[in-house]
Write a structure and sequence with these properties.
globular; 10 helices; three-stranded mixed β-sheet; seven-stranded mixed β-sheet; alpha/beta; 12 strands
């Protein structure tokens, strides 16, 4: 593994594993975590050999949100344009999976929501308890929860501050896959490996279209989609994908 003490990175073929490494502090986000995640996402986006990232937490939980002691001491849990935890305002262009053990609460859930897919272990607890401290879940929770949950459920989470367990979150569509306790990362890596077999340009373009098209008018959808998809359809990888299919062999992606 490489990276700072607070955030570790490890390459597993086309997958970059990003680990928040402050288990004794419940993986709370301080300046080092924010900068470390931002740097890891820069690495993911900048390397043609990488197709997807998996974010997880060391120890018994994913992330408990902002490190309040560090914040009071003057540390900033923000990293430039990427925002809180180096991810919530601008994630990577490539797909991301959150692998949650134990808990993902407050800013920790907002980090997970900034990812594209979520894997969580059974019994894990997810929530935005900020209102219990007269705070607001201002790192994307109030934006993204109503997009992936029924609005009234998102409202209940925001107003009560009470968490839900992974099993119910899975039933409601917030979580993509459930794992047995201790197996969230392994399950996320299985999913990431499946995704990484696909064309990297197509993955990034598909993610961008899904993310950006939320507020596109129907009358503009195909034009805007074409601006993003056309370069992919004309790429070397597109020709390689078709050729590999015809020759009945695995494709060799070049990212161009």
């Amino acid at each position: 593994m490489t990276g700072s003490d607070a955030v570790l990175t490890e390459r597993r073929e086309r997958v970059l594993v990003i680990t928040i490494n402050r288990p004794d502090q419940r993986n709370a986000v301080n300046a080092a975590v924010a900068q470390g995640i931002a740097a890891a996402l820069d690495e993911l986006d900048g390397e043609e050999a990488l197709s997807i990232g998996v974010i997880t937490g060391a120890g018994k939980g994913f992330c408990s949100g902002m490190d309040l002691k560090a914040f009071v001491a003057g540390e900033s849990p923000y990293a430039g344009q990427r925002g809180f935890a180096g991810i919530t305002q601008q994630a990577s262009a490539k797909p991301l999976i959150a692998a949650i053990e134990g808990f993902a609460v407050a800013g920790g859930l907002e980090v997970a929501l900034a990812c594209d897919l979520i894997v969580a272990s059974r019994g894990a607890r997810l929530g935005i308890p900020e209102v219990k401290r007269s705070l607001v879940a201002a790192a994307g929770g109030l934006l993204r929860l109503p997009r992936v949950l029924p609005r009234n459920v998102a409202m209940e989470l925001a107003l009560t501050g009470e968490p839900i367990e992974a099993e119910r979150a899975h039933q409601l569509g917030l979580i993509n896959r459930l794992a047995e306790p201790g197996q969230a990362l392994a399950t996320a890596l299985e999913l990431a490996t499946t995704i990484a077999q696909n064309g990297p340009l197509a993955l990034a373009a598909s993610k961008r279209i899904l993310r950006e098209s939320v507020d596109w008018p129907d009358s503009e959808f195909f034009e805007r989609q074409g601006e993003i998809s056309r370069p992919v359809m004309q790429s070397e990888d597109a020709r390689e994908g078709a050729t590999a299919f015809a020759e009945k062999r695995p494709p060799v992606w070049k990212g161009r």
